[in-house]
Amino acid sequence: MHPYGRDAISFMAHAGPIDRQDHSDGPLAGRTLAVKDLFDVRGFNTGAGNPAWLETHEPAKQDAWAVARLMSAGAHLVGKTLSDEMAYSLIGANHFYGTPPNPAAPDRIPGGSSSGSASVVAQGLVNFAIGTDTGGSVRIPASFCGLYGFRPTHDRIAVDGLVPLGPSFDTVGWFTPDATLLESVGKVLLENPDPAPTPTRLVRLDDLFAAADPACITNLQEAVGRITSHFDSVSGATIAPGGFAEYRDTYRYVQGYEAWQAHGDWVETCRPAFGPLTQARFDFAKAITDEEFQGWRETRARLRGHVLDLIGNDGVLCLPTAPGAPIGRNAPEAEFDAFRATVLDFTAYAGIAGAPQVTMPIGSAAGGPIGLSLIGAPGTDLSLLEFVTSLTLSSRA
Questions:
Q1: Residue range(s) defining the domain that contains residue 124
Q2: How far apart are CA 237 and CA 342, in angstroms?
Q3: Whether residue 137 lies in the annotated active site
Q4: H/E run at residue 70
Q5: Of 36, 80, 83, 114, which one is the catalytic site residue?
Q6: What are phi and psi of 277, to 5 degrees?
Q7: Is the pLDDT of residue 31 over 80?
């Protein structure tokens, strides 16, 4: 029997059960924590979702910054969770270790690459878990598993002790079953007060709502209607006047180039075995030239300007977190890859702009959970978290 007593596949067996509580008091005292197997935990090998990475790296000498910070606030660390290979996916299916369950939709994928962290929270095995979000890997599994999830402003939280994927996109994110805990974790990890004012304008991204699965539109529109009264003004806008592909490709090329810069030497030296989808992504990344990268960086700067202009100093963007409900867990790999491209049409904006995004569960449609997201100006992380908590409190009043 697996030492965790329930689902074995969400946790990484190579780490075994962990039982560390470095401090018995603090704002997270009494809360259990699991961490994605991209974060270093002292004394354990970091596996990054790939057996070759696990075998070719020594046990960590110290905890990743985020892990140490959470435990200093009283959190009780109980395990490391499954990641998609090298975090290079949005699906949650690992070629070597399998697919963690999605208890909110057992026949559907959990979303990735922080799939294990989302799964253990959704199963109730821990109170909260941390993952990473480069292209949507916290936001998507949160949406697919019916959880709250948060991607912070880029560089707001230290990534020390974290296996990189695309450093100019990589962030530390977290999952909780409720908004109050989401905010509590944020107050621990987000050390400094927000420098920006609380947002007062809601900007609905009409082209993304139009692109979402029609079966989900009623739920999405009702959710938007519930939050509009909390803003001084509400308006619609187009996030991608040139089409979604420009954002998607900008992310893929910039992130792919950075992934090869981070891991290319290891790939060439160790010749690790990858699953076919991960292998194809590294092959793509290797082929990106310096000139192509510079061109896509310039495109990113232009697109970032457009996103930030829409947000301004006092706005938040409102959008569906994902194109719809999660697809079936037994879908063929080709369908997974096509679905990932569609998901990037909804997730690329916060990463390109370096902005914080929160996703909230709003019910189920088309066979699985769906989420609604808010993107704020860089630096408005705590304001976003406080706003989401106030929404849930006011809905109970």
A1: 13-244+289-396
A2: 20
A3: yes
A4: helix 65-72
A5: 36
A6: -70, -40
A7: yes
CB proximity list for 138: less than 8 A, separation 6 or greater: 114, 118, 131, 132, 149, 150, 151, 173, 174, 175
pLDDT computed for residue 8 by the predictor: 67
Residue 213: burial class (beta carbons within 10 Å; 0-12, 13-18, 19+): middle
Total structural domains in the chain? 1
Element holding 47 (H helix, E strand)? none
**Which residues are 205's β-sheet partners?**
237
Could you tell me if residue 268 is inside a domain?
no
DSSP result, 262-276: HHHHHHHHH-----H
Annotated active-site residue in 89, 119, 137, 143: 137
Other beta carbons within 10 Å of 98: 14
Please report, for residues 69, 181, 242, the alpha-carbon distance to residue 20 in angstroms, rounded to integers and kept in the order given. 13, 20, 50
Single out the catalytic residue among 10, 83, 89, 113: 113
Has 36 been annotated as catalytic?
yes
Task: Tally Cβ neighbours within 10 Å of residue 120.
Answer: 31
User: Is residue 249 a part of any domain in this protein?
Assistant: no
Whether residue 10 is preceded by a cis peptide bond, meaning omega within 30 degrees of 0, is no
Give the mean pLDDT of the chain: 94
Strands 315-320 and 201-205: parallel
Is the distance from CB of 41 to CB of 74 less than 8 angstroms? no
Instruction: Please indicate, yes or no, if residue 140 is contained in any of the structural domains.
Output: yes
Q: At residue 128, what is the residue type? A: F
Which CATH number belongs to the domain containing residue 208 in this structure? 3.90.1300.10
Tokens in use for 178?
């409720």
Known active-site residue 233: no
Q: pLDDT tens, 319-362?
A: 999 999 999 999 988 899 899 999 999 999 999 999 999 999 99
User: Is 164 part of a structural domain of the chain?
Assistant: yes
